[in-house]
Amino acid sequence: MKAIAVRLKPNQDLKQSLRELAEANGWQASFILTAVGSLKQARIRFANQASSTVFQEPFEIVSLVGTLSVHGIHLHISLADRTGKTIGGHLDDGCLIYTTAELVIGEISHLVFAREADEQTGFNELTILPKCE
Questions:
Q1: CA distances for 22 relative to 33, 62, 102, 108, angstroms
Q2: The predicted structure's pLDDT at residue 2
Q3: C-alpha torsion sign, points 8, 113, 44, 83
Q4: What domains can you pick out in the chain, each with its CATH number?
């Protein structure tokens, strides 16, 4: 495994930036090791909801977890507001960096994280494959 450190700057879209990094670096099987920072706008999808909710206020990123690949990304985020109240859900496009986002991303060189339709869930789910060299 190797690790990559990244800092995102104000007004960058968190999910879009991670998608672009995955594509630019050809990541096949990566994941978030750690993440801290802040958002000025959050767009997250809560469990079992068809659409995302947008929040227009500053939040601290208290957790970001999930997988990244050129084949797709699946990330969940936890955020704390100014009172410390925490919300979390599926990270969506439209989460805009407030001051910074400091991320450390791990990459597994011998695997591929693919996405395939799952009849049971109805979603494109993670499929873990050996990397063919």
A1: 15, 22, 16, 13
A2: 95
A3: negative
A4: 2-130 (3.30.1330.80)
Residue 42 exposure: Cα atoms within 13 Å on the Cβ side: 26
Query: Under the phi-then-psi rule, with left for phi > 0, alpha for psi from -120 to 50, and beta for the rest, what region is 28?
Result: alpha
Question: What are 25's two structure tokens?
Answer: 């670096």
pLDDT in tens, 25-76: 999 999 999 999 999 999 999 999 999 999 999 999 999 999 999 999 999 9
pLDDT in tens, 81-121: 999 999 999 999 999 999 999 999 999 999 999 999 999 99
CA-CA distance, 51 to 63, in Å (whole number)? 21
